[in-house]
Amino acid sequence: MTQLEAAKKGIITEEMEKAARFEKISAEELREKIASGEAVLPCNVNHKGITPMAVGKGLSTKVNANLGTSDAYPEVEKELEKLHAAIKAGANSVMDLSTGGDIDQVRKKIIEASPVMVGSVPMYQVLVENQRKGKGMIEMTADDIFAGIEKHCADGVDFITVHCGVNLEVIEELKEKGRVMDIVSRGGSFITAWMLHNQKQNPLYEEFDRLLEIAKKYDVTLSLGDGLRPGCLADATDAPQIQELMILGGLVKRAREAGVQVMVEGPGHVPLDQIEANMKLEKTLCYNAPFYVLGPIVTDVAPGYDHITSAIGGAIAASSGADFLCYVTPAEHLGLPTVEDVKEGVIAARIAAHAADIVKGVKGAWEWDLEMAKARKGLDWQKQIDLSMDPEKAAKMRKEKNEDDQECCTMCGKFCAYKLISEYLGTTFTGC
Q1: What pLDDT was estimated at residue 400?
Q2: Do 329 and 352 belong together in one domain?
Q3: Cis peptide before 42 (omega within 30 of 0)
Q4: pLDDT band for position 431 (50/70/90)?
Q5: Rounded distance, CA 5 to CA 20, Å?
Q6: Whole-number pLDDT of residue 323
Q7: Which pLDDT score, from 0 to 100, does residue 418 have?
Q8: β-bridge mates for residue 119, sequence order
Q9: Measured between alpha carbons, how far is 199 from 228 in angstroms, rounded to an integer?
Q10: Does a structural domain hold residue 258?
Q11: d(C-alpha 332, C-alpha 145), whole Å
């Protein structure tokens, strides 16, 4: 029985109990959200040691970190180091997007080591394995694709990205309308090339019921990928993107009816003034399914700083209804991220998520900021560090910039506003 099936029957599972405690809500409230499909609880029956975490409406905004090997960097040890860095920085999930080295080993080790939910894109490995056999991606068969999906699910992956909405009709729309950057999604480009060469329909769309059977067997949450997400501002919110989203809405209904949990992925590069509309479109067209967004990135011209462009967009997206933010690192558009890039990306996304949670009224979000304000007023430096999103960095900067641990910081010194106004208003001032 999947978490969705249990929720529909009025059953509160152990995983729901644990996830509800994290959210500071009742298990019954969470069960209702899961039953309606407005929340998902990605929790593969084969992922041992996972800490259950729910994603969806009225819950804290979750943050994902992407990991994975490439041909240039195939070592599993480096990805495990990134995994630990991401979790330490506060990531709620990770995705293994490996395309190099021993992909099976990398995935299994990440799942084994991860207490947070793990996602993957099985299509990547199917393509790599075909190439290693001397074949091209155009020689993939539907059986190859579904065998790859089942392998990932059997290993314990909690959610999988599947590009089911990229079908021949959508591609014709893309060809007719035109784009600056065409398709930037790897999975979307793979399946598009396959369809155009073979002149066949997308197997993930045409045989969606087959996909549902596999997902249901392991209680894997489907993350319906946006194969036509915009890769630049000029392509945002165009007809092909919206047509794909409409198709995904129909698949959301079919998945729920089959007892399979489902969420929807979203853009991408989107200008500030279109983000809220994108969030509302997804919620309307996809029956309030949880929305998982990459960024959105709000300008195309900041390589090296795209964790910032992403955090700006992510804060607006989450406050407008997005439920799950996929981090973007400073290395986005430039290369494979380092451990430090992973940390920076997670923290930036967490800042965006928390800023949105304050607006959403998520329990505990406002109170966290209020405690920080009180600590600042009292010049309680240790408490400020303890309350900060990155205590290590805060402590390091405090030490480097303030010799002898003086009472006030080196920005204001004896002109400290907190200290001065406390003396003249007669309010409590406690110092360090």
Answers
A1: 84
A2: yes
A3: no
A4: very low
A5: 18
A6: 98
A7: 64
A8: 95, 159
A9: 19
A10: yes
A11: 28
Residue bearing tokens 């997005």:
322
Using an 8 Å Cβ cutoff, are 331 and 338 in contact? Answer: yes
Question: pLDDT tens digits for 48-98?
Answer: 999 999 999 999 999 999 999 999 999 999 999 999 999 999 999 999 999
CATH number of the domain to which 350 belongs: 3.20.20.540
The residue out of 360, 379, 401 marking a domain boundary is 360
Predicted TM-score of the model (pTM): 0.94
- CA torsion sign for 328, 49, 123, 237 is negative
Task: Check whether 406 has a pLDDT greater than 90.
Answer: no
46 and 171 assigned to the same domain? yes
Vertex 291 angle, CA 80 and 351, to 5°: 60
- Whole-number Cα distances in Å, 333 to 82, 111, 228, 300: 19, 27, 17, 10
pLDDT on residue 429: 45
Number of domain units in the chain: 2
CB distance 107 to 157 below 8 Å: yes
Residue 428 pLDDT more than 60? no
Rounded to whole angstroms, the Cα distance separating 311 from 348 reads 6
Is the distance from CB of 57 to CB of 75 less than 8 angstroms?
Answer: no
CA 244 – CA 215 distance, rounded (Å): 21
* Other C-beta atoms lying within 10 Å of the C-beta of residue 403: 8
- In the block, tokens 């395309």 appear at 99
Tokens 């240039």 correspond to what residue?
72
